[in-house]
Amino acid sequence: MAALGNLTGRRWFSALALGVTLLKCLLIPTYHSTDFEVHRNWLAITHSLPISQWYYEETSEWTLDYPPFFAWFEYVLSHVAKYFDQEMLNTHNLNYSSSRTLLFQRFSVIFTDALFVYAVHECCKWIDGKKASKELTEKPKFILSVLLLWNFGLLIVDHIHFQYNGFLFGLMLLSIARLFQKRHLEGAFLFAVLLHFKHIYLYVAPAYGVYLLRSYCFTANKPDGSIRWNSFSFVRFISLGLIVCLVSALSLGPFLALNQLPQVFSRLFPFKRGLCHAYWAPNFWALYNALDKVLSIIGLHDKWFGSAVPARSPPLCDSLGNPHLHADCHIGPRGFLRCLILCALSSFMFGWHVHEKAILLAVLPMSLLSVGKAGDASIFLILTTTGHYSLFPLLFTAPELPIKILLMLLFTIYSISSLKTLFRKEKPLFNWMETSYLLGLGPLEVCCEFIFPFTSWKLKYPFIPLLLTSVYCAVGITYAWFKLYISVLTDPLVLKTKKQ
Fold this sequence. Notes:
24 helices
């Protein structure tokens, strides 16, 4: 990083982007998960079959379960893939893999990450320069660029495990940047498009809806900052509605014409999969399940726990995961961003069949807040460190063990040291309890990766490392969620607005 201090203008950002791209190239030969086969199969489905069969095809167990725009995205990629290896586009070639297939799919992720790089650049324009230091590496824009471009979670999930999250988060960050630039219709359009690429972003739709209504549809405020109700613009409201309707029509229209919408929605929302994923995401339900198991073992389940919690269903989880959007959502871009993160994190905490990777939906936007206030930086570091460690079980092969440990250590050390330097004139970012908890991740990793595999319990209780990781990380993420919620409710700007 010291060498970057001599770079000026846009050169340092280009250097950061180029450096992480080279790292991604070095990760090409590493382990890849079943998601690699999932996306290869989707390439084959969209290339070989007519659109009427896309959401019915089930030769492979990895059926198409993303919205139509992502299916078209795979369709476009498939027409490039045929020049690498035509056999990867055969729906009957289950678990097909070749060196050319590997190269194509890996490079397709790297290439589409260009949108993420551009979105990060746009977001950095919004960062306030009041804390700017003479040293380049201590400037908020530089720190934010590193936290986003070199995000550990995104690197291992996309470029080792294998997914296209960088491209999707690029759309989300770009929509946020456009809202910050008061280009509301562009931001709304980009987010509507994003929803039809991957429906997990519905989690944060309430924040977008409230912010756009408050900041775009209402055109004036009273002297005390509250809404002037008669300033509501029906023209602007209709403009937003038209954008949503037109994007939805473009995405879902062909399937509506084919009378296939019920089939599409059954693939997008498979509630039959159950409340929890095979590896418990580190959220409320992980703590609930762990406590449920402990009480059942010691014989206190029915007395203390069995009747205390209502039957769990998707509607119940949705209601728990939808946070109260209070006055903070209309206090400028920062208020919107806080509400967006609360939506993402609350949905992660209480959602139905949540995957551990969904923590990135809160981590990446939280990066934008981390360089603004010391309190937000503290929450970011706890959430990010814990959330990133919870992704470790995704990479369970021996060759990737030193890679994930080294990359996470480098990212975590940089995050903590850079934010401590940025806020060195303020109170410490961690108290003794938070420091102790984060340091506890070290012994946990030693126990799970270096001690447990050599014990007799490995064969009888192979799930214990997953259980320990999930429950321990759930404590930290729950704490970060609670701390963020309290900080929003007690924010001086919010209190001032309510009094006025």
